[in-house]
């Protein structure tokens, strides 16, 4: 099999996946807002039900805005590549030859990428789809047609979180109509278009919420131990992971220290400046904080 063709194929698949996400969003919007809860808000004489409809519609739009914002940010943010000047900063790199790995003080262990013919900062890995080394590479994500690395991991996690919450909301608020669907289908009292969009939206959202749940749990566990998806295979089971600084510090290494920015795909200037792991070249280890 031609690996290059396979990798290019993954890129094309990515564009299809983005279209699929937008199609699911459009169908869900039609089923949840246009078809179900907006009519209730306008027509219902029950004040409690109208208030509930208002709450659901507001929450739906809030999550949708956050989802799209995180999506665009993670798609268009460079995960981080090895800077041109990196070799010089290390002092000429005389001792760095192919296949060697050496310790360079603050930068930790430096590797070498035979494909890029360049040094690799710690936690950096070569992506065969992007054809380059990516800083603190987590994985290449076909859903966003981009690598997930040091500079966009937070945005990826927020995209995951908001998509999970939005699809979960869709499933919960469509459930009563979905149950009603079976009785109405027998009586033929609802239009076929409405029913088709309801069933499609419910089934798609349910499938998404179940598969996303696995990813959410997996990435929460990775986040709490400051591990990337690539590093899971590098860890030695018995020894505590060297980048594991404790849950709170691990979280701050990805989300920053400014609480006001945690839920948004943004960083404060202070955090970008003071947290070196966000630039993807230097990472504090356990021995730095607890010698
Ligand atoms: Zn490389
Ligand atoms: Zn990649």
Automatic annotation (TrEMBL):
Domain Palmitoyltransferase DHHC, residue spans: 111-234
UniProt EC number: 2.3.1.225
Catalytic activity: L-cysteinyl-[protein] + hexadecanoyl-CoA = S-hexadecanoyl-L-cysteinyl-[protein] + CoA
Gene Ontology CC: endoplasmic reticulum; Golgi apparatus
Subcellular location: Endomembrane system
Main location: membrane
Membrane topology value: Multi-pass membrane protein
Source taxon at top rank: Eukaryota
GO aspect biological process, one term: protein targeting to membrane
Entry keywords, A to Z: Acyltransferase, Membrane, Transferase, Transmembrane, Transmembrane helix
Ranges annotated as spanning the membrane: 12-38, 50-77, 155-175, 195-218
One Pfam family per UniProt: DHHC
GO terms, molecular function: protein-cysteine S-palmitoyltransferase activity
PROSITE patterns (UniProt xref): DHHC
Family: Belongs to the DHHC palmitoyltransferase family.
Free-text comment on this protein's domains from its UniProt entry: The DHHC domain is required for palmitoyltransferase activity.
Name this protein carries in UniProt: S-acyltransferase
Source organism of this protein record: Brassica campestris (Field mustard)
